[in-house]
Amino acid sequence: MKQFYGTKKMLKKYLINSLILLITFIIGFFFLEMFFRVTDGYKIFNFNLEKKNLIEVNLADTSLKKTQALNKNFAKLYPDTPFLNFLEIPLEPIPQKEKNLEYEEMIKQINNDYYKNEFNKYFNSNLIEKINTNSCGEDSNCQNAIYYYCDFKKAGAGYLIAFQSPDEGVIPIYRIRPNYYGQGGQIVYSNYGFLGKDIKLLKPKNTIRLAFLGASTTENSYPAYLTHFLNLWAKKKNLNIDFEMINAGRGGTSSDTMEKVLEYEVKFFEPDLVFYYEGANNFWAIHNLLVKKNNTENYTKPKQFMKESYLPLESISALIKRVYQLIFKSNPAYGYEPEKPDYDKSKWNWSVGSNQLNDETLPLNLKKQINNVKGIKKITDEIDSELFVTSFLLMVKDKMKLDRVRHKYIFENLNFDFWPFTYKDMDYLSNLQNQFFKKAAQSYGAQYIPLAEKFIYDPDFFSDPVHMLDEGTKLQAWIMFQEILPWLEKKIQTGQLPKKSKMNLTSHPYLDQPIRKIKLTRECFSSKIGN
Questions:
Q1: Does residue 465 have a cis bond before it (omega within 30 degrees)?
Q2: CA 530 to chain centroid
Q3: I need a labelling partner for 206 at 20 to 30 A (CA). Which of 246, 260, 352, 423 fits?
Q4: What confidence tens digit (pLDDT) does each residue in 434-486 have?
């Protein structure tokens, strides 16, 4: 009997200890689960794992906190900075534009919402005529525009609004309609079709003009912040100077367009500083480096790693998901780079020291980019302006891990659009491109801004590999602000800036012209036709 009670007591003790252990495990699991849900950006009280809104996670939870923490680091990097609280400095609102009734009437013909927004563009008259007459020849800009032309026609546009090109070419392909505003008034273009506030052709007294050349990574990006920081700096220093922005960024374009935009549009405003920032649209030429090892090599873009699949309990627990990540470290479902096929790199043996700027074998359209930088420098010399060439930011690093929700577009762009190239090789080519930008700037007498060399490569600052979220944009502008400040202060102290206008124009020779409407007469059997 005593033995029975002893066994019962031991069993009771065992059960109590097991219960305490179970409760401790449940409480520990619960708190770890909550911790990882918060850390990884999941909604806390949902049974199934559900991420917070992509923008909410990036801006509110992650990049803002990280950028604030970087202030101390950048204080060491730039010890003489006039202010560090750049995150707390809002942009001044741009005055809203009145609705253009004629434009509103024109877009009623478009039966596609996307192309209604795209109808804000004026197209090069030479381009439309060449497509209409089937005479693009081998001009790649004209060939590529055929798809755009046919999609407009498919959307119901019987004509396109055009501007008279200053030369016989098709570049620039388009301009933005003056006084256009989009996204409910959040995007406002000036009286001359540049993003931002209205400007006068004749430069006002005590004004330093900044002109920004680039693609979509310049348009809707850093220029407004950089200009704003400079105005705040001038105010803090009690300088009777205004900094004025000409944002000539034009989405989807490359370096040849930027040279033409400066030549025919921007230079007549007599900018004092011109910034060149490009490296994205020319980077697509990476595909020209793909050499198949044999005729049977398959480089088809895979889709299996783009789909979400779940292991047991993974869809309901952030903690279990973390455990799986530790076990399956190479699985792309958890943000790791997928395994990629080998490819021939016989064309990849470049070294910056041995290559000349005019080398025909340079990758990524570098020879064209360098020639355009040279042409831009020639124009800036003609108008007594200073050219700043900036290294380009591409969010790719070897062995980096991405969050498949928060960094969705970075992951998909790098691993699908640029398939089969590895992160390591893309990083190498991006660095090579920047080294040649530096070499070109030094060779042609331009200033070089080492943005990519000093930027913090964190995917939480990016929306895709080349476009940044607001905090990343502020960080970019702040680094550029610090880099140009010593040069700028010297120019102001010596009386070289600001300077008076020399052209004294009363009208712009190319932007002040009546619009034209050119009918779309070419047959389009689909949106993807050749010449």
A1: no
A2: 29
A3: 260
A4: 999 999 999 999 999 999 998 888 898 899 999 998 878 988 998 899 899 99
